[in-house]
Amino acid sequence: MTGNEINEKLSALTTDQIQANLIQASHQIDMDDIVREGFPTLREVANEVSLPLSDEDIRLGEKMMQFLHNSQDPIIAEKMGLRGGVGLAGNQLGLMKKVIAVLVPNEPEHDEAGQVIPPKEAYKLQEIMYNAKIVSHSVQDAALETGEGCLSVDQEIPGFVVRHARVTVEYVNKAGEKKKIRLKNFESMCVQHEIDHTNGIMFYDH
What we know:
alpha+beta; globular
């Protein structure tokens, strides 16, 4: 489906219908579930998720994380036609809920002989965050050399996306626990990108 076709399909549904479809046990989120530029929720501030978390909102977060895992698996991604992603926000699914999933893999290292050394931990950051917000940030700014992309944007948009180099983020995890984490480097950029989505901001606005 084209981006316009996906937007038209999802615009005919209520947000309750969209979420009910997404969290079906047999459903795996794919590119046809992700809204594209022009869909209203990409430009709207999402609502905070009600606490304690409902089973439906927990399943939603788990489905979002499952999508990221699938998108980073070359075999599954090719089979399902997925673009690789490290983050996904509720707004990108046509929902007005402050929920994001972030999955940042650790890169393998190489020894002196050039042999690949698998990372001890598969992921630098693997978290489902509800009601995430930045509570403090560094004075220093930074930008990714390669620029940024977005699953909701089908064309490449070159340019530096200037963000805070380091941030402290408060959120609720899927167990309902309040958390506070400090992030830097790519993990910081990724979480800022997803929190922007929950506030109706696109990366190229920067």
